[in-house]
Amino acid sequence: MASDPSQLTIQFQPERRVDVIDVNQHVEDEATGFLEHHQEALYCSYHTTGGYLEETVCNRLDQCRDQVHEFIAPFRELFPHGADYQHDQLHLRKELSPQQRRTEPRNADSHLTFIGSGLENCVTYPSSPARPVFFVDLDGINKDNHDRRERRTTIIGYDDERVVDETELRVPVSDHPIDSVSLRDPRLGIFERLHEMLAKHDVTTGRVHLDLVSEEKHAGLTVNEYETLLMKHDL
Fold it and tell me: Does the residue 13 lie in any domain?
């Protein structure tokens, strides 16, 4: 008989700016046996410069930390730290207060590497303490002031899941050949629709899966910071 889902939130600090951290080791250290109680586990990152690779990708990398570093390396070369990113021109960031500009990290390279390498904020793996699940941190230490970040991730253990509803949503884009759209834009009504669906089915523990239809060949989805200079210029 399937048991109710279990939830655990853990915090940790990276050892270096780009770090590959075995979250399952932290789970075992904090709540021994948590992963043994369920068949599957969902891992959720709260950050836009640190996340997870899908299980299939990690398996191709032999669940090896060094191979994950090698996988990320070409994207770090493509988006080098310190390049002339609009996002890092803090005097242009109108959404930041003067105080925020003094502490805001210049980390456009980390955001772009996250997007380009296909890191995700939410993934599922078999729930087992015997195998690693890597949190890939791309901005673990602020290069300007050398502060180590506090990272947070939630793990939900569960035994089964089922689809309760599906819908197709249309997203308008501009005539520009390269465009980015925030699905959180209230004018689109997408999140309002999703919340209505969750309420309709009384979902208390679950996930919303967003995917492009198969006909979309030149578009992608990512969970990241929707900052105008980053999304409209640097990307």
Answer: yes
The CATH number of residue 87's host domain is 2.60.120.460
Q: Which domain holds residue 143?
A: 6-161
- Distance from C-alpha of 192 to C-alpha of 220, rounded to nearest angstrom: 22
Tens-place pLDDT, residues 50-101: 999 999 999 999 999 999 999 999 999 999 998 999 888 888 888 788 887 8
Q: Are 234 and 88 in contact (CB under 8 A)?
A: no
CA distances from 161 to 14, 39, 41, 78, 197 (A): 32, 11, 11, 38, 16
In sequence order, what DSSP letters do the residues of 140-169 get, joined into one string? SB-TTT-PBPPEEEEEEEES----------
pTM above 0.85, yes or no: yes
